[in-house]
Protein backbone atom coordinates (compact mmCIF):
# COMPACT_ATOMS: atom_id res chain seq x y z
CA UNK A 1 0.00 0.00 0.00
CA UNK A 2 2.80 2.37 0.96
CA UNK A 3 4.72 1.64 -2.25
CA UNK A 4 1.55 2.33 -4.21
CA UNK A 5 1.17 5.75 -2.58
CA UNK A 6 4.81 6.58 -3.25
CA UNK A 7 4.40 5.54 -6.89
CA UNK A 8 1.29 7.73 -7.27
CA UNK A 9 3.13 10.61 -5.64
CA UNK A 10 6.08 10.28 -8.04
CA UNK A 11 3.71 10.09 -11.00
CA UNK A 12 1.89 13.21 -9.82
CA UNK A 13 5.18 15.12 -9.46
CA UNK A 14 6.33 14.01 -12.90
CA UNK A 15 3.00 15.06 -14.39
CA UNK A 16 3.27 18.53 -12.85
CA UNK A 17 6.83 18.89 -14.11
CA UNK A 18 5.78 17.75 -17.58
CA UNK A 19 2.95 20.27 -17.69
CA UNK A 20 5.28 23.03 -16.48
CA UNK A 21 7.77 22.11 -19.19
CA UNK A 22 5.08 22.23 -21.89
CA UNK A 23 3.84 25.62 -20.63
CA UNK A 24 7.35 27.08 -20.54
CA UNK A 25 8.16 25.68 -23.97
CA UNK A 26 4.93 27.12 -25.36
CA UNK A 27 5.72 30.54 -23.86
CA UNK A 28 9.22 30.42 -25.33
CA UNK A 29 7.83 29.37 -28.70
CA UNK A 30 5.39 32.31 -28.75
CA UNK A 31 8.18 34.69 -27.69
CA UNK A 32 10.36 33.33 -30.50
CA UNK A 33 7.55 33.76 -33.07
CA UNK A 34 7.13 37.33 -31.86
CA UNK A 35 10.76 38.05 -32.70
CA UNK A 36 9.83 37.75 -36.38
CA UNK A 37 6.69 39.89 -36.15
CA UNK A 38 5.98 43.59 -35.90
CA UNK A 39 3.80 44.74 -33.03
CA UNK A 40 0.35 45.49 -34.51
CA UNK A 41 -0.68 49.15 -34.23
CA UNK A 42 -3.83 48.22 -32.34
CA UNK A 43 -1.67 46.88 -29.47
CA UNK A 44 -1.19 49.68 -26.94
CA UNK A 45 1.06 49.40 -23.89
CA UNK A 46 -0.78 49.18 -20.58
CA UNK A 47 -0.07 51.30 -17.49
CA UNK A 48 2.67 53.68 -18.54
CA UNK A 49 2.79 55.56 -15.26
CA UNK A 50 6.22 57.13 -15.22
CA UNK A 51 8.40 59.25 -17.51
CA UNK A 52 11.08 56.55 -17.45
CA UNK A 53 8.71 53.82 -18.61
CA UNK A 54 7.46 56.05 -21.42
CA UNK A 55 11.05 56.77 -22.42
CA UNK A 56 11.92 53.06 -22.31
CA UNK A 57 9.11 52.04 -24.67
CA UNK A 58 8.50 55.19 -26.74
CA UNK A 59 9.99 53.60 -29.87
CA UNK A 60 8.62 50.09 -29.40
CA UNK A 61 4.87 50.80 -29.19
CA UNK A 62 2.73 53.16 -31.24
CA UNK A 63 0.29 54.10 -28.47
CA UNK A 64 0.21 54.15 -24.66
CA UNK A 65 -2.34 53.90 -21.83
CA UNK A 66 -1.76 56.06 -18.77
CA UNK A 67 -3.57 56.32 -15.46
CA UNK A 68 -4.42 59.80 -14.26
CA UNK A 69 -5.71 61.29 -11.03
CA UNK A 70 -6.94 64.86 -11.20
CA UNK A 71 -6.06 67.26 -8.37
CA UNK A 72 -8.55 70.08 -8.81
CA UNK A 73 -7.11 72.16 -5.98
CA UNK A 74 -3.68 72.37 -7.65
CA UNK A 75 -5.09 71.96 -11.20
CA UNK A 76 -2.67 69.13 -12.08
CA UNK A 77 -2.89 65.52 -13.21
CA UNK A 78 -0.93 62.88 -11.34
CA UNK A 79 0.22 59.95 -13.51
CA UNK A 80 -0.77 57.26 -10.98
CA UNK A 81 -3.29 54.45 -10.59
CA UNK A 82 -3.96 55.13 -6.91
CA UNK A 83 -3.53 58.16 -4.65
CA UNK A 84 -0.97 56.28 -2.54
CA UNK A 85 1.31 55.60 -5.50
CA UNK A 86 3.15 58.90 -5.16
CA UNK A 87 3.23 62.09 -7.18
CA UNK A 88 4.32 61.91 -10.81
CA UNK A 89 3.01 64.80 -12.95
CA UNK A 90 1.37 63.52 -16.13
CA UNK A 91 2.96 66.43 -17.95
CA UNK A 92 6.42 64.97 -17.21
CA UNK A 93 5.50 61.59 -18.71
CA UNK A 94 4.07 63.26 -21.82
CA UNK A 95 7.44 64.91 -22.50
CA UNK A 96 8.65 61.50 -23.71
CA UNK A 97 5.58 60.74 -25.84
CA UNK A 98 6.37 61.44 -29.47
CA UNK A 99 3.84 63.81 -31.11
CA UNK A 100 3.15 61.26 -33.86
CA UNK A 101 1.91 58.71 -31.29
CA UNK A 102 -1.29 58.48 -29.29
CA UNK A 103 -2.42 58.33 -25.67
CA UNK A 104 -5.23 56.79 -23.66
CA UNK A 105 -5.96 58.58 -20.38
CA UNK A 106 -7.75 56.47 -17.77
CA UNK A 107 -8.94 59.30 -15.51
CA UNK A 108 -9.73 57.59 -12.23
CA UNK A 109 -11.61 60.37 -10.44
CA UNK A 110 -13.51 62.26 -13.12
CA UNK A 111 -16.80 63.71 -11.85
CA UNK A 112 -19.44 66.10 -13.12
CA UNK A 113 -18.15 68.62 -10.59
CA UNK A 114 -14.53 68.58 -11.80
CA UNK A 115 -14.93 67.73 -15.49
CA UNK A 116 -14.88 71.34 -16.74
CA UNK A 117 -11.53 72.18 -15.12
CA UNK A 118 -10.17 68.69 -15.83
CA UNK A 119 -10.88 69.04 -19.55
CA UNK A 120 -9.34 72.50 -19.63
CA UNK A 121 -6.17 71.35 -17.84
CA UNK A 122 -5.78 68.12 -19.83
CA UNK A 123 -6.17 70.05 -23.09
CA UNK A 124 -3.47 72.43 -21.91
CA UNK A 125 -0.84 69.81 -21.04
CA UNK A 126 -1.55 67.82 -24.22
CA UNK A 127 -1.12 70.96 -26.32
CA UNK A 128 2.10 71.88 -24.49
CA UNK A 129 3.45 68.39 -25.24
CA UNK A 130 2.67 68.88 -28.94
CA UNK A 131 0.24 65.94 -29.01
CA UNK A 132 -2.77 65.90 -31.32
CA UNK A 133 -5.98 65.66 -29.27
CA UNK A 134 -7.48 63.58 -32.08
CA UNK A 135 -4.99 60.82 -31.22
CA UNK A 136 -6.05 60.74 -27.58
CA UNK A 137 -8.77 58.83 -25.73
CA UNK A 138 -10.26 59.81 -22.37
CA UNK A 139 -11.73 56.90 -20.38
CA UNK A 140 -14.13 57.11 -17.44
CA UNK A 141 -17.26 55.55 -15.97
CA UNK A 142 -18.95 58.97 -15.73
CA UNK A 143 -21.20 59.34 -18.79
CA UNK A 144 -21.99 63.08 -18.36
CA UNK A 145 -18.26 63.76 -17.97
CA UNK A 146 -17.44 61.84 -21.13
CA UNK A 147 -20.20 63.60 -23.05
CA UNK A 148 -18.66 66.92 -22.00
CA UNK A 149 -15.18 65.83 -23.10
CA UNK A 150 -16.63 64.60 -26.41
CA UNK A 151 -18.18 68.05 -26.97
CA UNK A 152 -14.65 69.47 -26.68
CA UNK A 153 -13.27 67.23 -29.43
CA UNK A 154 -11.93 64.30 -27.40
CA UNK A 155 -12.44 60.66 -28.28
CA UNK A 156 -14.09 59.09 -25.26
CA UNK A 157 -14.45 55.58 -23.82
CA UNK A 158 -17.02 54.32 -21.34
CA UNK A 159 -15.31 52.09 -18.80
CA UNK A 160 -17.41 48.96 -18.37
CA UNK A 161 -16.93 47.61 -14.83
CA UNK A 162 -17.21 43.83 -14.88
CA UNK A 163 -15.28 42.50 -11.90
CA UNK A 164 -17.64 41.44 -9.12
CA UNK A 165 -20.72 42.58 -11.05
CA UNK A 166 -23.84 40.53 -11.75
CA UNK A 167 -24.87 40.10 -15.38
CA UNK A 168 -27.84 42.42 -14.82
CA UNK A 169 -25.49 45.16 -13.61
CA UNK A 170 -23.39 44.72 -16.72
CA UNK A 171 -26.50 45.02 -18.92
CA UNK A 172 -27.43 48.27 -17.16
CA UNK A 173 -23.96 49.64 -17.89
CA UNK A 174 -24.23 48.56 -21.51
CA UNK A 175 -27.46 50.54 -21.82
CA UNK A 176 -25.73 53.59 -20.29
CA UNK A 177 -22.95 53.24 -22.86
CA UNK A 178 -25.50 52.94 -25.65
CA UNK A 179 -27.13 56.26 -24.67
CA UNK A 180 -23.82 58.08 -24.35
CA UNK A 181 -21.89 59.99 -27.00
CA UNK A 182 -18.85 57.79 -26.38
CA UNK A 183 -17.15 56.36 -29.43
CA UNK A 184 -15.60 53.49 -27.49
CA UNK A 185 -16.55 50.88 -24.92
CA UNK A 186 -13.62 49.85 -22.73
CA UNK A 187 -13.62 46.39 -21.14
CA UNK A 188 -11.63 43.59 -19.57
CA UNK A 189 -10.92 40.83 -22.09
CA UNK A 190 -13.01 38.40 -20.05
CA UNK A 191 -16.12 40.46 -20.92
CA UNK A 192 -15.45 40.73 -24.63
CA UNK A 193 -17.53 37.71 -25.68
CA UNK A 194 -20.56 38.96 -23.76
CA UNK A 195 -20.36 42.53 -25.00
CA UNK A 196 -19.76 41.84 -28.68
CA UNK A 197 -23.05 39.91 -28.88
CA UNK A 198 -25.10 42.89 -27.68
CA UNK A 199 -26.97 44.52 -30.57
CA UNK A 200 -27.25 47.84 -28.71
CA UNK A 201 -23.51 48.39 -29.15
CA UNK A 202 -23.19 47.94 -32.89
CA UNK A 203 -22.38 51.66 -33.22
CA UNK A 204 -19.50 51.45 -30.72
CA UNK A 205 -15.89 50.46 -31.14
CA UNK A 206 -14.12 48.38 -28.51
CA UNK A 207 -11.04 48.85 -26.36
CA UNK A 208 -10.13 45.46 -24.89
CA UNK A 209 -7.62 44.85 -22.11
CA UNK A 210 -5.45 41.77 -22.05
CA UNK A 211 -3.09 43.49 -19.63
CA UNK A 212 -1.94 40.18 -18.16
CA UNK A 213 -0.41 39.02 -21.46
CA UNK A 214 2.56 40.31 -23.50
CA UNK A 215 1.78 41.33 -27.07
CA UNK A 216 3.30 38.24 -28.71
CA UNK A 217 0.99 35.93 -26.77
CA UNK A 218 -2.12 37.96 -27.62
CA UNK A 219 -1.04 38.08 -31.25
CA UNK A 220 -0.46 34.33 -31.56
CA UNK A 221 -2.70 32.50 -29.10
CA UNK A 222 -5.85 31.08 -30.67
CA UNK A 223 -8.03 32.21 -27.76
CA UNK A 224 -7.40 35.89 -28.58
CA UNK A 225 -7.72 35.77 -32.37
CA UNK A 226 -11.33 36.93 -32.54
CA UNK A 227 -10.44 40.20 -30.81
CA UNK A 228 -7.20 40.59 -32.75
CA UNK A 229 -8.98 40.23 -36.11
CA UNK A 230 -12.22 42.02 -35.23
CA UNK A 231 -12.23 45.46 -36.92
CA UNK A 232 -14.56 46.78 -34.22
CA UNK A 233 -11.77 46.20 -31.69
CA UNK A 234 -9.62 49.26 -32.33
CA UNK A 235 -7.32 48.92 -29.33
CA UNK A 236 -5.93 46.00 -27.33
CA UNK A 237 -3.99 46.73 -24.16
CA UNK A 238 -1.00 44.47 -23.58
CA UNK A 239 1.50 43.95 -20.79
CA UNK A 240 5.19 44.80 -20.61
CA UNK A 241 6.55 45.91 -17.26
CA UNK A 242 10.04 46.94 -18.29
CA UNK A 243 12.48 48.37 -15.75
CA UNK A 244 10.39 51.29 -14.51
CA UNK A 245 6.90 49.92 -13.94
CA UNK A 246 4.90 51.49 -11.11
Write structural notes for this entry.
With 246 residues, the chain is an alpha/beta fold. It has 2 domains: 1-36; 39-238, Phosphatidylinositol (PI) phosphodiesterase (TIM Barrel, Alpha-Beta Barrel), CATH 3.20.20. 39% of the residues lie in helices and 20% in strands. The protein has 9 helices and 9 strands. The protein has helices at 2-34, 51-57, 90-94, 115-128, 143-151, 167-179, 192-196, 215-220, 225-229; strands at 43-45, 63-71, 76-78, 102-107, 136-140, 155-159, 184-188, 205-210, 233-238. Strands 1-9-8-7-6-5-4-2-3 form a 9-stranded mixed sheet. A hairpin with a 4-residue loop joins strand 2 (63-71) and strand 3. The model is unreliable at 16-25 (pLDDT under 50).
Structural class: alpha/beta
Roughly what is the average pLDDT, rounded to an integer? 87
Low-confidence stretches: 16-25
Which radius of gyration do the C-alpha atoms yield? 21 Å
Distance between the termini: 53 Å
Task: State the CATH architecture of the largest domain.
Answer: Alpha-Beta Barrel
Following the backbone from N to C, one meets helices and strands in this order, namely HEHEEHEHEHEHEHEHHE
Number of helices: 9
Major sheet details: 9 strands, mixed
Counting structural domains, the number is: 2
Beta percentage is 15-25%
Under CATH at level 1, the class of the largest domain stands as Alpha Beta
Strand arrangement within the widest β-sheet reads 1-9-8-7-6-5-4-2-3
The CATH topology name of the largest domain reads: TIM Barrel
Amino acid sequence: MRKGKITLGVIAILLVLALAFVALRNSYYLWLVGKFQDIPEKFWLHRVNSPLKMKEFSEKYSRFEMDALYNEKDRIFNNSHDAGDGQVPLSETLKFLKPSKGAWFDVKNLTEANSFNAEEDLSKIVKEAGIDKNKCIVESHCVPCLNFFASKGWKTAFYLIGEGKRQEDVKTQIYEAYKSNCKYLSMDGHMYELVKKNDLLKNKKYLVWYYWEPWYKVNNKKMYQDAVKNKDVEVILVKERGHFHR
